[in-house]
């Protein structure tokens, strides 16, 4: 397969940097009716490099406006963020927008990850770094591990609390979350290990350290979201998992819930609660390209669509934010039809930005969508599996052992991005190189005991200038 990127590869309605590199979503926050979303950016090259904080905002979660870079490393050679402003969060502290981020100096074993902050103007466009940075200089003495990053803050009746992703060292490497406490969100006291778990649990590999901890609080319990990593594994491990339980008195106690997305391209999620009380979560959709091909892309990496997270019957489920319906342009390209046996939905076409929707009901059998060369989505009720197949891989997630009733399927295709959701069941995000969707044809197949109703193909608009 020749990999020659062209314009059809570029996402148009997922957020990307205006040029070059993007990784984690950072600091989502809803202020005065506007959603602000930051992200790890390397404006200088289409590869990971000294991280800055890029910035976009939106009033509707659909159309985004670009803003100047919010945070840049240094520039003072003695600055605690000389070599990077790594991930973190944004909060309103004493009435002012405030970013907490990881300041980085050095590289490899010599790298120091400290906790820094910057205070924003009322419109969140100008950021002034705290002259007292770093607020926490590096890992607490008893720890030894260098991982000490990605601050996540919240406030309780007893003051402010800050979580960091970390990991143990030695033969039994595993992830940990550390906690700090503060009366004023400025001076911090180390409070020990908030949560840890063995590397392998219930058949899930939880990596050798954890990044980007997020504590989501629901009426029925707390959810700790972790990005599990092992950069040394033969196939580098990177996936987001969650635990459901309770955070109290500086500790979290909970059970593994599973992965948040069964694909291989959704990582380092960041969440916020908006003014309407919804928990929204975004992930980083990474590329899986050889470096020489990646360097030929003008924009590398994207943020996922915003997902609304809920805790139902002890499971965290996410669905695309309902606002995203507004990405649809004009009448459907095909449908709505009820799929009987084998239905041709769309002949060969050149649309790179599509959504395919359907409502699935049934107790047995499989419904399947063929979306282009090597690209397919299936709901398999016999094996309780939701599957996304691309030319490079097979991604799947379990679905509940009960009959499905009108479960909404949404397949989002945007250049090389495939983001698919089966409501209240599972999400799968992966890349497809080259984009198959822009070729079609699109067909759907449904077995006799499964109904795929209202199957529709929509053309979607771009969301960023
Ligand atoms: C996650 C991560 C974070 C870190 C950032 C650096 O992808 O490794 O832990 O802060 O990326 O860009």
UniProtKB/TrEMBL annotation:
Cite the InterPro entries for this sequence.
ConA-like_dom_sf, GH32_Enzymes, Glyco_hydro_32, Glyco_hydro_32_N, Glyco_hydro_beta-prop_sf
Q: Which GO terms describe its molecular function?
A: hydrolase activity
Record keywords: rRNA processing included? Answer: no
Q: Which domain of life is it from?
A: Bacteria
As recorded in UniProt, its EC number(s) are 3.2.1.26
The Glycosyl hydrolase family 32 N-terminal domain covers: 14-317
Q: What class of enzyme is it?
A: hydrolase
A Pfam family that the UniProt record links to this protein: Glyco_hydro_32N
Task: Please provide the record's keywords in A-Z order.
Answer: Glycosidase, Hydrolase
Q: Which family does it belong to?
A: Belongs to the glycosyl hydrolase 32 family.
- What name does this protein carry? beta-fructofuranosidase
């Amino acid at each position: 397969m020749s990999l020659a990127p062209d314009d059809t590869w570029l996402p148009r309605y997922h957020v990307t940097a205006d040029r070059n590199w993007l990784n984690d979503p950072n600091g989502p926050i809803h202020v005065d009716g506007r959603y602000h979303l930051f992200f790890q950016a390397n404006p200088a090259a289409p590869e990971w490099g000294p991280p800055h904080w890029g910035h976009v905002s939106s009033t509707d979660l659909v159309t985004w406006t670009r803003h100047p870079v919010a945070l840049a490393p240094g520039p003072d050679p003695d600055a605690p963020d000389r070599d990077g402003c790594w991930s973190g969060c944004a909060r309103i502290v004493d009435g002012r927008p405030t970013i907490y981020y990881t300041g980085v100096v050095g590289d490899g074993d010599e790298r120091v990850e400290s906790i820094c902050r910057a205070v924003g103007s009322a419109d969140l466009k100008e950021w002034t770094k705290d002259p007292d940075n770093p607020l926490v200089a590096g890992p607490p003495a008893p720890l030894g591990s260098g991982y000490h990053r990605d601050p996540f803050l919240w406030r309780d009746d007893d003051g402010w609390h800050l979580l960091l992703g970390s990991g143990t060292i030695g033969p039994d490497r595993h992830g940990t979350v550390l906690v700090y406490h503060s009366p004023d969100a400025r001076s911090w006291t180390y409070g020990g290990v908030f949560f840890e778990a063995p590397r392998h649990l219930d058949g899930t590999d939880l990596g050798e350290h954890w990044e980007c901890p997020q504590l989501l609080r629901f009426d029925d319990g707390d959810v700790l979201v972790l990005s599990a990593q092992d950069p040394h594994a033969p196939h580098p491990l990177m996936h987001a998992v969650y635990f459901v339980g309770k955070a109290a008195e500086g500790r979290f106690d909970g059970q593994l819930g599973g992965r948040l997305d069964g694909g291989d391209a959704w990582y380092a999620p960041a969440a916020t609660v908006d003014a309407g009380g919804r928990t929204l979560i975004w992930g980083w959709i990474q590329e899986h390209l050889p470096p020489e091909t990646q360097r030929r892309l003008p924009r590398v990496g994207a943020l996922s669509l915003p997902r609304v997270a809920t805790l139902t019957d002890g499971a965290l489920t996410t669905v695309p934010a309902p606002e995203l319906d507004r990405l649809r342009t004009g009448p459907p390209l095909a449908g709505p039809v009820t799929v009987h046996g084998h239905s041709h939905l769309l002949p060969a076409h050149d649309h790179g930005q599509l959504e395919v929707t359907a409502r699935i009901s049934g107790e047995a059998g499989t419904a399947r969508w063929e979306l282009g060369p090597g690209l397919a989505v299936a709901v398999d009720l016999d094996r309780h599996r939701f599957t996304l197949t691309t030319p490079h891989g097979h991604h799947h997630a379990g679905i509940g052992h009960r009959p499905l009733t009108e479960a909404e399927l949404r397949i989002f295709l945007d250049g090389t991005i495939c983001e698919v959701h089966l409501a209240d069941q599972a999400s799968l995000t992966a890349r497809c190189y080259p984009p198959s969707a822009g070729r079609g044809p699109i067909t759907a197949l449904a077995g006799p005991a499964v109904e795929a109703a209202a199957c529709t193909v929509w053309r979607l608009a771009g969301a960023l200038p």
